[in-house]
From TrEMBL, chain A:
The keyword Transmembrane applies. It is a multi-pass membrane protein. The keyword Signal does not apply. It comes from Allorhizobium borbori. Pfam families: FecCD. This is Iron complex transport system permease protein. The chain crosses the membrane at residues 49-71, 83-101, 107-125, 132-158, 178-197, 234-253, 265-286, 292-311. The lineage of its organism: Bacteria, Pseudomonadati, Pseudomonadota, Alphaproteobacteria, Hyphomicrobiales.
TrEMBL record, chain B:
PROSITE patterns: ABC_TRANSPORTER_1 (PS00211), ABC_TRANSPORTER_2 (PS50893). GO terms for cellular component: plasma membrane. It is found in: Cell membrane. CDD domains: ABC_Iron-Siderophores_B12_Hemin. It comes from Allorhizobium borbori. Transmembrane segments: none annotated. This is Iron complex transport system ATP-binding protein. Residues 2-236 form the ABC transporter domain.
Length: 318, 251
């Protein structure tokens, strides 16, 4: 009930605001006046962009939550576990080896790379004695750094840095009708995550509890990582990397409501969408008529929040 | 009945559990005692299929624990290990509700809710039921975990050091509660426990382990004897009869 209120009072107004924010003059007045150009911009650009923001925001927030439950660490999300960077490497591989592939196939390849990168991250975690929970995201960020260095090397050698840059920094300004629909696939993954919500919560209790409660831990792990990889790949392929979203939103919701995912996942999805909308609208207005990519805005807010989380932990531990 | 036949666990060449064969009777409270490193916790984990065995087999009511589907076994046998670090932020009530997971897959029926309320009341957690686990003391959290395991409502319930983190008052009430679960609810309760006197007073049956093997087993009257305890723990004991209870001192 309160969720519905949040959607009506926060998400819907933000979405409407997003429809009418931008360089071209699209407003209720121009639309009612029957301005054909305004209608075209609305249908071809603003509506797809707004839908893409909502789908990507909710998808990444949910993906971050699942990773945190499975890794049992608050600081993990696709951009602190090598997942996003691996998806980027996958995209580069497709661009180099099979540039003619349809975009859906590109996304699948990126998803496979994302999955492989995340599995590598988890395998490293199993081998390293972890003295501190902060080691986990540090390892992930380092792994991401290594993978993106490999990507940059090949992109540089083959003169593809520019086209790769477009994938890697989250920017929704190029989202047009016909070029964002992959994100519905990410939405489908989000729905599956909700259906399996209880499994992820039980897995979040740890392997022993999960096994004792009769859960097949490895298959939940596989399902979760599959969802995370698909969502990440879909978002990176259609708009580019949206960093820290999967860190901020799940942590805030967890502080307020806890981690019983059946109850919190809808909130996480709605808040993720709202936050991306806010950041994108801010990026469109701060330096108008130029745009600041949403990835940059989130990078600033997200790194600040990341620091807050770290400092908060330390003051609690002390 | 839990039938353990020829179970071993080795790390490299070193056996931690070394060819244990043991039948745990149905009903009552059985305590597994022994010095550090005797393999008690490892044995308990293997019984509950949380750890693979190097050799041997364990059956629960005839079901091989390594081959029976996890959810089938989860309706017959539950376990609480020691040192449970749960990072997920759940309320006590959320946690206890997940004890019903093997029965309801997360969608709680009226009957499930009844079990949840009962377990919360049984562990006296009513006032804490809305609190998050990370806001509780170690002892309160331990009680919440025990409530969750009891809520699973299995015939066999295994606990590894259930008195960890509990002060004397709560340790006594926890032991009484576990003994009552065995006598009133007809459950088979198996504990790994360090405190020999708690084991002496509340157990129906005691199994003693040393260096991965069973050294002796029997009723408390048979085990709580100075010479027997000395062989198990390798330190001198005196056994006193106070009221009808045999109490061992070793200080």
């Amino acid at each position: 009930m309160r969720l519905l209120l949040f959607i009506l009072a926060v998400l819907v107004p933000l979405a409407i605001l997003s429809l009418f924010t931008g360089v071209s003059n699209v407003s209720p007045a121009t639309l009612f006046a029957g301005d054909a150009r305004a209608v075209m911009v609305l249908v071809e650009s603003r509506v797809p962009r707004t839908i893409a923001l909502i789908l990507a925001g909710s998808g990444m927030a949910v993906a971050g939550t699942i990773m945190q439950m499975l890794a049992r660490n608050r600081f993990v999300e696709p951009s602190t576990a090598g997942t996003v960077e691996s998806a980027g490497l996958g995209i580069l591989a497709v661009l180099l080896l099979a540039p003619g592939l349809p975009v859906f196939a590109k996304m699948l390849v990126a998803a496979v790379f994302a999955l492989a990168g995340t599995l590598l991250f988890l395998a490293i975690l199993r081998r390293i004695p972890l003295r501190s929970v902060l080691m986990v995201p540090l390892i992930g960020i380092m792994l991401g750094g290594v993978i993106s260095a490999i990507t940059t090397f090949f992109a540089y050698r083959y003169n593809m840095q520019q086209s790769l840059g477009a994938w890697m920094s989250g920017d929704f300004s190029a989202v047009l009708r016909g070029r964002y629909e992959l994100l519905w696939f990410s939405f489908a993954m989000t729905v599956i995550a909700y259906i399996a919500a209880d499994r992820f919560t039980v897995a979040g209790l740890g392997e022993d509890f999960a096994t004792s409660l009769g859960l097949k831990y490895t298959s939940v792990m596989a399902l979760g990582l599959g969802i995370v990889s698909m969502v990440t790949a879909a978002v990176v392929v259609s708009a580019g990397m949206v960093p820290f979203l999967g860190l901020i939103v799940p942590n805030v919701i967890s502080m307020i409501m806890g981690d019983a995912l059946r109850r919190t996942l809808p909130w996480i999805a709605a808040s993720g969408a709202a936050l991306v909308l806010v950041c994108d609208i801010a990026g469109r207005t701060i330096n108008a008529p130029y745009e600041i990519p949403v990835g940059t805005v989130l990078g600033i807010i997200g790194s600040g929040f990341f620091l807050y989380l770290l400092l908060r932990r330390q003051s609690r531990a002390a | 009945m839990i039938e353990i036949s020829n179970v071993s666990k080795t790390y490299g060449a070193k056996p931690v559990v070394d060819g244990v064969t043991l039948n745990l009777p149905v009903g009552g409270l059985t305590s597994i005692v022994g010095p550090n490193g005797a393999g008690k916790s490892t044995l308990l984990s293997m019984i509950a299929r949380l750890m693979p065995m190097s050799a041997g087999s364990v059956t629960v009511d005839g079901l091989d624990v390594t081959k029976t589907p996890g959810d089938v076994l989860a309706r017959r046998l539950s376990i609480l290990r020691q040192d449970n670090h749960v990072t997920a932020r759940l309320t006590v009530r959320d946690l206890v509700s997940f004890g019903r997971y093997p029965h309801s897959r997360g969608r709680l029926t009226k009957e499930d809710l009844h079990h949840v309320d009962e377990a919360i009341a049984y562990l006296n957690l009513g006032e804490l039921s809305g609190r998050f686990l990370d806001e509780l003391s170690g002892g309160q959290r331990q009680r919440a975990f025990v409530a969750m395991v009891l809520c699973q409502n299995t015939d066999y319930v295994l606990f590894d050091e259930p008195l960890n983190n509990l002060d004397m008052k709560h340790a006594v009430s926890m032991m009484r509660l576990l003994a009552r679960a065995a006598s009133d609810l007809g459950k088979t309760v198996v504990l790994v426990i360090h405190d020999i006197n708690f084991a002496a007073v509340y157990s129906d049956y005691i199994v003693a382990m040393q260096s991965g093997r069973i050294v002796c087993q029997g009723t408390p009257d048979e085990i709580i004897r100075a010479d027997v305890l000395e062989t198990i723990f390798g330190t001198p004991f005196e056994v006193h009869t106070i009221g009808s209870r045999r109490i061992a001192t070793f200080y």
